[in-house]
Amino acid sequence: MPELIEPKKHCNSCPRLTTFRQENSKLYPNYHNGAVNNIGPMDAEIMILGLAPGLQGANKSGKPFIGDQSGDLLYAALSKLGYTNGEFHNGNKFKLNRALVTNAVRCVPPQNKPTAAEINNCRPYLLSLIDNMPKLKVIFALGKVAHDTALRTFGLQVSAHKFMHGCEYKLREGLWLVSSYHCSRYNLNTKVLTEEMFLSALTQAQRLSRQ
Fold first, then answer.
1. CA 20 to 30 Å from 45, out of 38, 81, 155, 201?
2. Sign of torsion over alpha carbons 153, 159, 160, 165
3. What is the mean pLDDT of residues 137-155?
4. Cβ contacts of residue 134 below 8 Å, gap of 6+?
5. Tens-place pLDDT, residues 67-82
């Protein structure tokens, strides 16, 4: 198995993200303000693939989806399906099992919108992560950007695998992609996504992971 490659905390591969991180370090000196690596076991069966760290969430805590409303929904759903040991509470009193959480882009982008070049710069970390997860069966993508990133990582055409909530596609033999609307505050507030819809899609991913 190849060595796992993770970005350094103060990665400078993306000039725009580096500048934004430096600005945030002055505004929020107690925040993590760096590349956010994954959490969860490497022998996980399911990978939760998000977009990028949120300014007041993972960029603050240093852990993906910890500290904001999207993480509240994500980790509550994972807990319901048995992917946590202990109760999720402020990101501290739980431990993931059989699930790993990461992002397509590891540093917080302005307005939560990474560029195509920034996504490409982070792709080697995603590839390395996948190569080091021997039991991985499903990538659960949160939103279209994560969906498209997973497809491009495996050389699949985005146009032939359109993003829809609850869609599922085979990435390679033994590995599936299941996608959901992102569990963002905006999607929840506008009812684009409900807790029931999200849990249903995650249950779908769990079912595929057990085949």
1. 155
2. positive
3. 97
4. 1, 42, 43
5. 888 999 999 999 999 9
Tokens of 137: 């069966």
Mean pLDDT of 104-131: 96
Largest CA distance in the chain: 49
Residue 112: name the closest of 179, 22, 185 by CA: 185
Inter-axis angle of helices 144-153 and 116-131, nearest 10: 60
What is the edge-to-edge ordering of all strands in the sheet holding 46-50? 99-103, 46-50, 138-142, 175-180, 168-172
Q: How far apart are CA 106 and CA 126, in angstroms?
A: 10
> Which helix (H) or strand (E) segment is 48 a member of?
strand 46-50
Query: Tokens 């299941």 sit at which residue?
Result: 178
State both tokens at 70. 């999207």
Q: What are phi and psi of 177, to 5 degrees?
A: -115, 125
- The mean pLDDT of 155-171, rounded to a whole number, is 97
Tokens (6 digits) for 79: 């807990």
> What count of other Cβ atoms lies within 10 Å of the Cβ of residue 135?
13
Query: What was the pLDDT predicted at 69?
Result: 87
∠ CA 144-148-153, rounded to 5°: 150
Query: How many Cα atoms occupy the beta-carbon half-sphere of 124 within 13 Å?
Result: 9
Mean residue pLDDT of the chain comes to 94
